[in-house]
Amino acid sequence: MARALAVALAVIISTQTTAEWQPSFEQVQADLFAATGGNTNAWADFDNDGDLDYFVGFRGRPNRLYQNDNGNFRDVAASLGVADDQETRAAAWGDFNADGHVDLYVGFADPKFASKVYRNEGGGKRFVDVAGEIGLALNGISRQPAWIDYDGDGDVDFFAAFRDGANRLYRNDRGRFTDVTSASGVGDTRRTVSAVWWDFDRDGDLDLFTANQEGDANGLYRQQLGRFEDIAVAAGVAGTPRPKEDGGVGASVADVDLDGDFDLFVASYGPSALYRKDAGVQFADVARDSGIDLRGHGVTSAWGDVDNDGLPDLYVANFLAGQPFYRDAFFVNGVRLVEALPDALLKKDATHGVRFVDFDRDGRLDLSLTNNDPAGGGHPLWRNTATMRGRSLAIDVTDRNARRTRAGSEVRLFRAGTRTLLSSGLVDSGSGYCSQSEMPVHLGIPATWSGTVDIEIVTMLGGSRHVSIVRDIDPDQYRGRSLRVITTR
After folding, report:
1. Residue 489 and residue 484: Cα distance in Å, rounded?
2. Model confidence at 7: pLDDT above 50
């Protein structure tokens, strides 16, 4: 009880400053999203109708898949065959067979039940479990999954973190998967609960960060030609030494200071960390200097430019068993990160899943939360109603065949004809906790710039950083829809 009190107090202490800009949200279809027990929280346009649909994995009730019809949702999980009733702790959308229809991985909390891979048959009609057929029927206490192209050959491979055993990596060989865990060196046996991929050393391939619990060090796996080396201690992101009850939980990546590099936030049991990317492979924990002082039970983190000013803002879900309304944190990014959690979210908050998503295509990031506490706040969907401080552009990154196989790609906006950076983001590669979404990259454009923009996309292919540039785009022409950018290879 003493530790619980200290943890709760630490979160309260960190919320005393008032942000200049205040977020504002209203609930959407509150009755539909009232059910408690939500764990995973993953978005994708599974029916290819232009808006994003919503999968929620539950504890204590069947999973749900909400089909989005111009901003109105209905649960179609049972009719489409994805309403599993085992506790679901992992979900990831990805087009593993590159047929243009996004597929769904589902992993369970009970290791007796093998994971499933639901192949999307197209037309918004049916999903079929093909996990055994393609080599991804995995047993274990499932945590963070990710569809990523680790070998840069143009198709998506698969990574899964497990709470009770070695993490696993599978190479995609024409739609069937080969276990390359041992050969790659990523079979970490520490208690990993989240993982995110990006090219932090800028050498042309995706690297891996893993957040580990129970006092273990985090992992930072630098890739070199398919082999991975853990350099977390040398890079400054190990998070150790720390007591056994502490550990990394929810990792997410964003260009926090708009310097062109991607920084790393780790929601943690104990002090959460914001690792600023410095020269070479070095990171520095600047959480307290940046305005973040969280010393509690941080579980999930998500970045999104909620006010469209070009700087990513941060939501952190906090969870403590027996305290259903244990306070979350919402940081608005300006000169510093300032805590500004709206009162409306105090009892309709998250414990595990957090996603920023423009579900209604109005150019403003909304917020979806999942709360698995039986006495908690359901899995609310919040519409962003705040006044924006700029415009936005949603960018859908695809391969040359218009397939969404480019997780981990970097997207940057510049003032047209210059190298003045306006905003930047990543195609989702597993950030947060237990989920991966397949969504356009939402980038804010501050009101100080009213002109056109150039878009730069960097994709890791064949061991090189391939750059695609689209010039002189007017964001106002893409209100209500995303801009599809086909990468050059």
Report:
1. 15
2. no
Give me the sheet containing 176-179, strands edge to edge.
Answer: 142-148, 157-162, 168-173, 176-179
For the question of whether the overall pTM of this predicted structure is more than 0.85, the answer is yes
Tens-digit pLDDT profile for residues 19-38: 789 999 999 999 999 999 99
> Smallest Cα–Cα separation from 263: which of 234, 248, 246, 285?
285
Cα distance between the two ends of the chain: 56
Report which of 454, 482, 316, 290 is spatially closest to residue 392, judged by C-alpha positions: 482
Which residues, in sequence order, are CB contacts of 38 under 8 Å at separation 6+?
A: 56, 57, 58, 59, 352, 353, 369, 370, 371, 372, 378, 379
* Pair 264, 237: CB distance under 8 Å: yes
Residue 285: name the closest of 328, 232, 351 by CA. Answer: 232
116-120 and 127-129: which strand pairing?
antiparallel
pLDDT in tens, 275-318: 999 988 999 999 999 999 999 999 999 999 999 999 999 999 99
Contact between 424 and 480 (Cβ < 8 Å): no
